[in-house]
Amino acid sequence: MGEIKTPDKLKPEGVAPAAAPSLYADRQRVYPKAVFGKVRSVKWAVLILCLALYYLVPWLRWDRGPGMPDQAVLVDMTNARLFFFWIEIWPQEIYFLAGALILGAFALFAVSSLFGRLWCGFTCPQTVWTDLFMFVERWIEGDRNARMKLDAGPRNGTYWARKITKHGAWLLIAGATGGAWIMYFNDAPTITRQFFTGEAGAMVYFFFALFAGFTYLLAGWAREQVCTYMCPWPRFQAAMLDENSLVVTYREWRGEPRGKAKAEGVGDCVDCAACLHVCPTGVDIRDGQQLECIGCGLCIDACDSVMGKLGRPKGLVAFETLNNLSASAAAAASLPPGPQRQQAGMDARRVPRFIRPRTIMYGAALSVVALVMLGAFLMRSTLDVTVLPDRAPLFVRLADGGIRNAYTVKIVNKTHDEAPLTLILEAPAGLRLTVQDVEAAGEGRYPLSRRADGITQYRVFVTAPPMAQLAESTPITFRLLDDAGRLATSQSSAFLGPKP
After folding, report:
1. Number of Cα atoms under 13 Å in the Cβ half of residue 119
2. N or C, where is the chain less crowded by C-beta within 10 Å?
3. Is the peptide bond before 475 cis (omega within 30 degrees of 0)?
4. pLDDT tens digit string along 114-152?
5. CB-based contact 275:285 (threshold 8 Å)
6. Interval 273-305: pLDDT, tens
């Protein structure tokens, strides 16, 4: 039986097999051009607001009384506390932070369903700092054409002077960013002095370098690569969009076919590529919705500028819904390019439906989470007691035959009130309460002090007399009374003993 030839053996001799296609593509350097217009003005305002909040908030003061930090926003790692103006969050209240994150997630979903990638284009930290770095780059090296010419030219003194100046400015911004970050975890004036005098700890310098380094790397070097390859949001944000979401889009029905400004029978797009040249991620919006597009809208300003110079209506690139895009295309399909076609397309548009099942669902989820958090905050206790029974051993048999259980009682006082409390035991008759190193103020009543804005811990014993008829596990309750004898808080536990 003859040998079965494989595909490789069927190839003529001397012909090399085709090389496997490369899965790696070189980065295409993006040189965004400066642009002016309404969208750019809004982006500048948002950028200034975001940067001002980030850099200045650690310096805001808030008087909380003697012995307490006066920084308005502070993550106090030493005392395990989060301060936000008048709000003070303890470690056991971490659910407030989780609730805030859930609230932010639903808010992001709702905004995306209404306005597309508004977060990505205007308020994302990567966008804000990249915008700032590009502004510095244009200021030092010039606009798009000047930067392209500089990079393609000789490596002379001018080249190195501008590059060193630019990277020096970037490092200063990155350093300020890392410096502001460590201020959120330490008192701002104190850590600033300690940082420059070398008195700060190693962890402070580590996190400063970490945050400054990533700012310099991501905003200065990676830029659009972060949005395209590193960020997960573009991969699933499309699930929040529908045909009624306002997104940055090209009105193809009006712009096609492309041609020169004075040509006959062509659309409004003169193929100047102004929209492409201003895009910070190098996207041609005329190719439709793309993963790389962050929805910043700078292409709108660029196109409007060209349309204004040509005396044509603005809005060839605009925030538009896919429903309106389809309706305008259908209305204008039978008409030749020109004013009549433009008018027909615009008349077919409808006001975007902001209230629809998707947005109602996100709004309802947002409202429920917000109400739950508000209710939890309004009902939060300022005084808690935790009772931890000993587990090794579960109980001790005394010399007289009695049974004793030991407990650790922790009093968490979230106020600045140091008024004493009284501990009593609610249990079956015969069980007796004692507190280590505390004298009783009466039968079964022990006065306990509570540390202001802190945790106080006591060692407590409950003893059953010899021959007491008790179950293997007997429910008991520790109660704390205020100075007026009212119940302040309580905690249930169990008294354990041998099997009857």
Report:
1. 16
2. N
3. no
4. 999 999 999 999 999 999 999 999 999 999 999 999 999
5. yes
6. 999 999 999 999 999 889 899 999 999 999 999
